[in-house]
Write a structure and sequence with these properties.
Helices cover 29% and strands 42% of the residues. The protein has helices at 7-15, 55-62, 92-107, 112-119; strands at residues 3-4, 21-26, 32-37, 40-42, 45-51, 65-72, 78-89, 124-138. Strands 1, 2, 3, 4, 5, 6, 7 and 8 form an 8-stranded antiparallel beta sheet that branches. A hairpin with a 5-residue loop joins strand 2 (21-26) and strand 3. The model has no long low-confidence stretch (mean pLDDT 97).
């Protein structure tokens, strides 16, 4: 039987290793758009980068509602769904700082600066999601 994760458990789960998130944004026609992302937690916020002109960047500029799913696809299975509202920043220093930290998580410390330089440029956004709701279950197949 599935068990609800505690606050500490879901935070550890989504921060473990290089798990990607599946981000859902709202298209102009009201339909969903889902894409994988690299991300970090910063306190009670979820942070990631995207291009201003990407589908998700345009969606977020118009409608900041998001949902993110992070899962473990190995038995006994687990998942966390985060829902919230995004705030966008084009401050290049802030974008580069977070792009570097995210690069460190997913590519390793030795390549962090490379990814920060590549993704911390004009036209890129820092997305900060204020998490409003968490659904977190472990042992789904138990």
């Amino acid at each position: 039987m599935a068990q609800k994760m505690t606050d500490d458990e879901w935070r550890a789960f989504v921060s473990q290793g290089t798990r990607t998130g599946k981000l859902s944004t709202v298209r102009a026609d009201g339909g969903p758009h889902v894409t994988p992302i690299w991300f970090l937690l910063d306190g009670d916020d979820l942070v990631f980068n995207t291009g201003r002109e990407s589908v998700k960047g345009r969606n977020l500029a118009r409608d900041g509602r998001v949902a993110l799913c992070v899962d473990d696809d190995r038995p006994p299975y687990a998942f966390v769904i985060l829902r919230g509202h995004a705030e966008l920043s084009e401050d290049v220093d802030e974008v580069r700082h977070w792009a570097t930290r995210i690069g460190a998580r997913y590519m390793g410390e030795d390549r962090a600066e490379e990814f920060g330089a590549r993704n911390g440029v004009p036209g890129e956004l820092l997305v900060r999601v204020r998490i409003d709701q968490v659904v977190a279950q472990a042992g789904v197949a138990d």
